[in-house]
Design goal:
This protein is mainly α and about 70 residues long. About 85% of the residues lie in helices and about 0% in strands. Helix 1 (about 1-20) crosses helix 2 (about 25-35) and helix 2 runs antiparallel to helix 3 (about 40-50). The model has no long low-confidence stretch (mean pLDDT about 95).
């Protein structure tokens, strides 16, 4: 139960970060691409282009956002 709570809390914060920092339109593109392709990293690159190019960069940006 605790692991599920942690997962959903982190997922919620990640969605908040992506929408707050890059807008709803890009987040919509991300989710659409993820549903079509099934590849999280490819969907990130597709929707966020030059802003986020790989998962490590996403993690760094997200952690920075969480610490602010």
């Amino acid at each position: 139960v605790e692991r599920r709570k942690l997962f959903y809390t982190e997922a919620e914060r990640l969605v908040e970060f992506l929408i707050t920092q890059y807008g709803r339109r890009r987040f919509g593109e991300f989710t659409e691409t993820l549903l079509k392709m099934g590849d999280f990293e490819q969907a990130i690159r597709s929707a966020y282009g030059g802003k986020i190019s790989h998962l490590e960069q996403l993690e760094q940006l997200w952690l920075k956002y969480l610490s602010e």
